[in-house]
Amino acid sequence: MSKRFAAMLVLVFLTASCMAIAKPVSAASPNSWASKAPMHVARSDLGVAVMNGKIYAIGGNTESGYMPNSEGNDYKALGWIVATNEEYDPATDAWTFKTPMPTPRYEFAIATYQNKVYCIGGITNWVSGEISYTGANEVYDPATDTWETKTSMPTATSAQANVVGGMIYLVGGGSNETLNQAYDPAIDSWTMKKPVPSALGLHPPPNALSTLVSSFVDNKIYAISYSLASSQNWVYNPSTDGWSPVESLPSSFLEGSNWWSQAAGATTGVMAAKRIYVFFGRYPYSTLLPTLAYTSSINAWAVAAAVPTYRQNFGVAVVNDILYAIGGRSYNYPFPDDNYFTVTEQAVNEQYTPIGYGTSDPSYVPPDSTAPEITVASPENKTYHTVDVALNFTVNETVSLMRYELDGETAVEISGNTTIARLAIGVHNLTVSAFDVAGNMGTSETISFSVAEEPVPFPTVLVATASAASVVVIATGLLVYFKKRKR
After folding, report:
1. CA–CA separation, 404 vs 411, rounded Å?
2. Does 2.60.120.10 match the CATH number of domain 27-353?
């Protein structure tokens, strides 16, 4: 037997062996759960966000032990409030540590916008039952693994973040969970929007919306809450700054149950129908509850598979219409007859394949990635002899936000054509920008123009007077001249 033939036999044997031990990866069935690699650091009340197909699990609470919520505990001093930042890659099922968040906190709002992760508000300490809120607004750039501090939220609180039309809306918080604070990342500024409606007097503050979660579908935000045996579901339209009631959680699932610890995520319609999935825990804490799925197009709820591992206060992320329930904590009551319990933090990462996965939503339209085009008619590249100059422009599509920037100063939000008043004498540079409903930003070309004082008209009266005086002088001179000649 030749060496070449022997080598070939060995290669064939090795290939066959590899084929024998390799296991085909089957696609998960719709409405089912699968376990994935856990986080390195077990924690609850964390923020999770998705950027470029990867999940970022940031911050959280690591409280643990026998009845840790007892009076006198200082969460910060005990090291229970963390700034941990881990990146999860679903393609490799692996976690990697990243640069921690500057401000350790939990129960904060988290959102992604233009390739950056925004972490806003939250809780920085809990001492003897007293909560310390922060308005910190810190932005993480995965490309550089760095953080940047932005303008803090007006009212420090815990809230739910949703991005619509280039704005980050933070829903919830305050004494009755009804705040609606909007952040514009392009100009780093805040505005207050119409609050979440109260719970119709059924449960007065502070319990009106004490278990609020939110998500968004088709550029509208849904705020879902429950208290005791009733629930609320309100939809917010950013374009009109208005709220409307829609179908609440099914009452049949609330009766006789103390539902607890909601978390929500929405499918986009690419690989599954557009739905908001709401996940639960409940008392007694060892009982699993079904997931509820809301379809806004028909204003109805459906029942989905329960989260496999009992836990509360976990985060939910959505990658390509697959949902991930990450982290959380579990409670154990060793003595059923009393209220003492043990808290165990979880690093669990479970993947949920939604109902009907593999079929896109009939209403799905590929996301608009084209920026609006802006044409400025006025001002023009010329000199104006007035300090009030008209700003006239056109945009080629419907937009959700417009503003102009003058001489590199803070952008000014506008609703359409306007007048820029009280301009300083000198040269000015102007650009107009607009966001369409998909969040794409378009910017006009830079217009350079100048403002100068109006030319002073030549004083004609003085000219006429001067001319008359000259005639008199000349005439007088001539008379004197001829008189001298006669002599």
Report:
1. 5
2. no
Q: Each residue of 217-253: pLDDT tens digit? A: 888 999 887 765 567 889 999 989 999 999 988 877 6
Burial call 202-235: b when 16+ CB within 10 Å, e when fewer? ebeeeebbbbbbbbbbebbbbbbbbbeeebbbbb
Q: Give the C-alpha distances (Å, rounded to integers) separating 92 from 96, 99, 217, 434, 451.
A: 11, 20, 29, 39, 60
> 10 Å Cβ neighbour count for 23?
5
pLDDT tens, position by position, 281-293? 665 555 677 899 9
Span 374-451 CATH architecture? Sandwich (2.60)
447-451 vs 383-384, strand pairing mode: parallel
Q: Which pair of tokens denotes residue 320?
A: 């390509």
Summarize pLDDT for 323-362 with one digit per residue, the tens: 999 999 988 877 766 667 889 999 999 999 999 999 998 8
Residues of the chain with CATH 2.60.40.10: 374-451
- List the one residue out of 454, 452, 432 whose CA is nearest residue 442: 432
- The residue with tokens 């940047």 is 148
Q: How many CB atoms lie within 10 A of CB 159?
A: 25
The CA distances from residue 410 to 84, 223, 402, 403, 423, in Å, are: 34, 32, 13, 10, 15
In the chain, residues under CATH classification 2.120.10.80 are 27-353
How far apart CA 352 and CA 321 sit, in angstroms, is: 9
| CA 114 to chain centroid | 10
Tell me the CA distances in angstroms from 243 to 132, 203, 233, 263, one per residue in order: 30, 19, 10, 21
Per residue in 104-146, pLDDT (tens digit) is 999 999 999 989 999 999 999 999 878 999 999 999 999 999 9
Whole-model pTM: value is 0.75
